[in-house]
TrEMBL record:
InterPro entries: GcvPB, GDC-P_C, GDC-P_N, GDC_P, PyrdxlP-dep_Trfase, PyrdxlP-dep_Trfase_major, PyrdxlP-dep_Trfase_small. The keyword GTP-binding does not apply. This is Probable glycine dehydrogenase (decarboxylating) subunit 2. SUPFAM superfamilies: PLP-dependent transferases. Keywords: Oxidoreductase, Pyridoxal phosphate. The glycine cleavage system catalyzes the degradation of glycine. The P protein binds the alpha-amino group of glycine through its pyridoxal phosphate cofactor; CO(2) is released and the remaining methylamine moiety is then transferred to the lipoamide cofactor of the H protein. Signal peptide: none annotated. Its EC number is 1.4.4.2. The lineage of its organism: Bacteria, Bacillati, Bacillota, Clostridia, Lachnospirales.
Length: 474
């Protein structure tokens, strides 16, 4: 029930005193023609309403959240404490530079740390999310080619296993997208890549490890092929959690990279933000970075790169998210960063090994941070789909893995357990998945009805898609 449906005429939360100053209203043409639709409820009503909704929400603090390629890891509370410090929280972006030197030092230090982790030369924090980072990185590639008068480069190569935002971002920048198929081992098909590159190639967008949870062993050959064709290599950092501190995108041959601070570096993820998708690049692209880069002179100052593409967001990005990520890096230290990656890979391989006798794996291990199951055979034998297994998990209080992605795997379930989950949690989830497989074999109809014990049971998703109710009718 909506808050609007719980009210009673005339009920309110507070009683304001009579106005003791002259009332000054806008001109008649600027006034509303009818009263605003506000719920008429008491403070008690509204408090209970949102408390009830909060109890029905599910996040990383509630339980296991294995969304593949999303790295929904636990957010340490010390991150929140640091971001709440008055010297960080109670500032304004228009303050004089000399009054926010500590905040500027955070941006500069974070840039240096993340450049070291990625093998890049410079880093901007303006982009507010991963896809925004993709868009910004591609603008850098475009500015580079245009600065050389190389306007014939109009195509971006994207593997068929890529995140959906990759071709969308390339299209937004004005590029044509060339999709190339994966090889049998799940990596980029080198022969198809060689056919695709040419004088019109602006660049390649690639995630490594890819969305199948596999590290492409031909990565140096892949980036070399693109470079020899005159293109640049873009690294989608969505899966950096598997390799941070172990191997650097810059050393793989990538020229530009975006990161997800709200994935890899333990800042809040989802709920509408704020996110952060900083973009790093090699020296050849640094002159095109968005404005307001922190430089160290006599103290810290903001400067615009020589041929900046301009602002991609107001001011300096979501600053407090950078503070959270910096706290995470300070807490882990140089030894802890690769340790986190090792445990992420260990957890994924442990789950995969414990499930591969009952679920078909799309690709045999070892995997990296995530693995993909194909339930095509299970559906053929029992009628139970990946959707049914995902819905069944909800009855056990477990958030499902990513469903039906990557698109190249039929009936896909893609799970990423992350390094912050204990063996006890993984064992519980493994036991539940094995139990659901047994139910599929013996009583499949039960799973067709799942979930049964959740606040909202199985929805008519076809009806919801074709006849959505997007607003309340007063």
């Amino acid at each position: 029930m909506l808050i609007f449906e719980k009210g009673q005429e005339g009920r309110m939360m507070t009683i304001l005193p009579e106005c003791d100053v002259p009332v000054s209203l806008p001109e008649e043409g600027s006034l509303r023609k009818k009263s605003m639709h506000l719920p008429q409820v008491s403070e008690n009503d509204i408090s209970r309403h949102y408390t009830e909704i909060a109890k029905k929400a599910y996040g990383v603090n509630d339980g296991f959240y294995p969304l593949g390629s999303c790295t929904m890891k636990y957010n340490p509370k010390i991150n929140e404490d640091t971001a709440a410090l008055p010297g960080f929280k109670q500032i304004h972006p228009l303050q004089p530079e000399h009054t926010v030197q500590g905040c500027m030092e955070v941006l500069k230090t974070a840039e240096q740390y993340l450049c070291e982790i990625t093998g890049m030369s410079r880093m901007t924090f303006q982009p507010a999310a991963g896809a925004h980072g993709e868009f910004t990185g591609l603008l850098l590639i475009k500015a580079y080619h245009e600065s050389r008068g190389d306007n014939k480069r109009t195509k971006i190569i994207v593997p068929d296993s890529a995140h959906g935002t990759n071709p969308a971002s390339a299209t937004m920048v004005g590029y044509s997208v060339i999709s190339i198929p994966s090889a049998e081992d799940g990596g980029v098909d080198l022969e198809e890549l060689k056919k695709a590159v040419g004088e019109d190639t602006a660049g390649l967008m690639l995630t490594n490890p890819n969305t199948l949870g596999l590290f492409d062993r031909n990565i140096l050959e892949i980036t070399k092929i693109v470079h020899e064709a005159g293109g640049l290599n873009y690294y989608d950092g969505a899966n950096l959690n598997a390799v941070m501190g172990m191997i650097r995108p810059g050393d793989m041959g990538f020229d530009v990279v975006h990161l997800n601070l709200h994935k890899t570096f333990s800042t809040p993820h989802g709920g509408g933000g704020p996110g952060s998708g900083p973009v790093g690049c090699k020296d050849l692209l640094a002159e095109f970075l968005p404005g307001s880069m922190v430089e160290e002179e006599e103290g810290y100052v903001f400067k615009h790169p020589a041929h900046t593409i301009g602002q991609v967001k107001s001011f300096y990005g979501n600053f407090l998210i950078v503070v959270r990520a910096m706290t995470y890096l300070f807490m882990l230290g140089k030894e802890g960063v690769p340790e986190a990656s090792k445990h992420a890979v260990l957890n994924a391989n442990y789950m995969m090994a414990q499930l591969k006798d009952v679920y078909d794996m799309a690709y045999q291990g070892p995997c990296m941070h995530e693995f993909v199951m194909s339930l095509a055979r299970l559906k053929k034998e029992t009628g139970v789909s990946a959707m049914d297994i995902a819905k069944g998990l909800l009855d056990y209080g477990i958030h499902p893995p990513t469903m039906y992605f990557p698109l190249i795997v039929p009936e896909a379930l893609m799970a990423e357990p992350t390094e912050t989950e204990s063996k006890e949690t993984l064992d519980k989830v493994i036991a539940v998945l094995r139990s659901l497989h047994e139910t599929a074999m013996t009583n499949p109809e039960t799973l067709h009805q799942a979930p049964i014990h959740t606040p909202v049971t199985r929805l008519d998703e076809v009806r919801a898609a074709r006849n959505p109710k997007l607003k309340h009718e007063f």
